[in-house]
## 1
Amino acid sequence: MKSTVYAGAANWAAADSRDHRFGLFRLKSGSEDWENITNGGLPEKCEIRAIVVDPKNTDRVYVGTQVGPYVSEDGGDNWTALTLPSDNAVTWSILLHPNDPNVLYAGTQDQGVFRTSNGGKSWDELNVPEPAGLCRMGFPSRTVRMCLDPSNPDEVYAGVEVGGLVRSLDAGETWEDIGGGLLDLAQQEHLKSQIGSDTKTEGMMDTHATTISASRPGTLIHATRMGLFRSDDKGETWAEMGIGKHSPLTYARDVQVSVHDPDTIYAALSVAAVSDAGSVYKSTDFGESWSRFDSDVSVDSTMMHIGQSAASPDCVFAGARRGQVFGTEDGGNSWTQMELPGGVQGVYAVACA
């Protein structure tokens, strides 16, 4: 591989073995072997649920662990804790400010959101309301993914699993629940889903990812258990995108606008949270049409996360739950399948430099 790839896994209740391996792994550029890089200062029995490579300094890598975020300044050889002021610091998401490297957000269990303005030396816990649509499941809620509007970085969105979406229009100072439009859609019979709570709105509240294009301020693309959805008014109202017309797989675990083309979107689509099939789909017209992007690989579990390269538009990677990583470095013409070391399951995040 020409690129350096990172993959993170965490303890996963549905793994094939209770003794399955997890942690942080790196496939260096020019190498064919994955390295376990959890011994350079990361916590023991490290669980990784978020990986972010700084696009302006690819030696700087952030990860979210069960005890909080960490940063490496040397591509993953050594790690420093960015300690959160919380006893419950299980970190599910990390968001970087596009213009100020000192400003970061961290999303945690129990829908926590933290912000730092000094590169993680200190953090403020932000006052995020409990979403009206929050579903009580057999696991704690979590701020599973965050994004901001590239045209106005003060507009920050945080997805709550299983609880919808909250929004701040002032860089995290104040927050509001914007899940009402999603709850409205959940009244439609085909968008009802109830697995682990006491309500059929659960499927629409099962948030996984949200993304915004620099060319369309205020327009959100949102991924849930029930598919892909779009809002053109900063989350006030929502419309179904009809991904089922293009893909037989509609469980959406990730959605990202290309960092190189504001009209291109990638989506990780599967059968369900625990399944034997996954895929990566691509749209070049901002979701009007879609086609399968991965090819000549065998995806045998839920596709969880997409990792883009800031250096090359041709370089895209993706990770599947049972320990598979897939990548293309020629814009999708060919794909390579890279198994993580034996026994690794519970993949949550993939990133590339």
## 2
Amino acid sequence: MASTTATQQPIVTAKSGKMKRILLITVGIIVLLGAGGAGAYYYFLQKPPVGAVKKAAPAAPPVFFPLESMTVNLQSDDAMHYLRIGLTLKLPDQKAQAALTERMPEVRSHILMLLSAKRPDDLAGIDGKRELAKELLETVQKTGGAPGDPAQVQEVLFTEFVVQ
């Protein structure tokens, strides 16, 4: 019997090499996509820790405290002039209103004294009214609070203003 002593080698085709390469590339892409998805989840969707920065609570709305209308005679050399004025005070909270209400007779007295010292020309125009609002704010803050602790008035608003 004749034997052939040839070593048999497996036949490797070009197709199996391409398949391995495609399989490796596909697995690599899947791994990269998974890592990218996990990173995106961590970055965008993870909740902040318990001690993280919290949103500030919205500020409480101001309290508007209307005062009764006041009528005063103005300083004038030629004729009798008077001022009728309505004021509203802008306060930070109810506590400030309660503190101001306790001292209201004193506050009104100082406002009347300030207004009666004015001349009609002082109140003419927008600049005169702005200056009067500043003076009224200072007066209310000074007389509406305890000594050394001014009243917490944010703004003085005119609701009525008649000079005649």
## 3
Amino acid sequence: MGGGYLLIILVLLVVTNGITYGASQLTSDGVSYTKNGETITVKKALDELINTSLTEIDSLKEHAKVYKYAELYDAVKVGDYVDYDAGEWTESSGMPTKQGEFGGYKSGQSKNESVACYEGTAPTYKGWRVLKKEAGKVYLVHAGQPECYFHALGQSNASMQLLQEHTGVYVDSKYATSDHIMTKDEAEKITGDTSDTSDDLRKTGANYWLATAYNTNGLWSVYAYGSINGRNSYAFGLRPVVELKKGILTTGKGTDKVGNVNAWIIA
């Protein structure tokens, strides 16, 4: 800015043929000087100086900007959507038709989306919601079902082992520590009972398995209208639960990757 002050001072008094004129008698277009062989008017010099200064001021403002963050744990409540990204499927897997098979998705398909495990049974919802908050950590559950699983009659022990080993599929290591398939206890705690419910944290509009055995034949499952029952020999959906790390931050609400417009954005 020092050069600017000098230039302004030069404009105040101009001597021509021994006569001193006040700056008010001259125009910035009418006074010029030569630099490196180029004639530069005072107006041009001042314009360049002002533009440069404004650019520098804008840069300083940007560097000095204070971004406000809040801890996700403090900001969210149970049922809220969170813009968590579980990534994409790296290979395709057809609809499961036999005991122990997982599938129902295509390569490149987002794991944040929902799939239908048989015709006309796609869940109403997609994305990730807060299932619970415990010990400073937020647990997210898929709002719908990103994949399907086939459980057959009399195979509860085998299915339980497979479901318990089905981990790491939805973990983004930057934000999450682990994942697992939703259990009967987690589903029941949403409403406190096992009956039909209008609570869409449990009622998704589609049937899905829970990672809890009903007996040696069946697994617990949630029906399309939200009730919890024992079933077997079907291809139902699975709802993964993701445990986020402590101290995850949010910048507020916005639109998540599957179009939910009121989701908390992870910083």
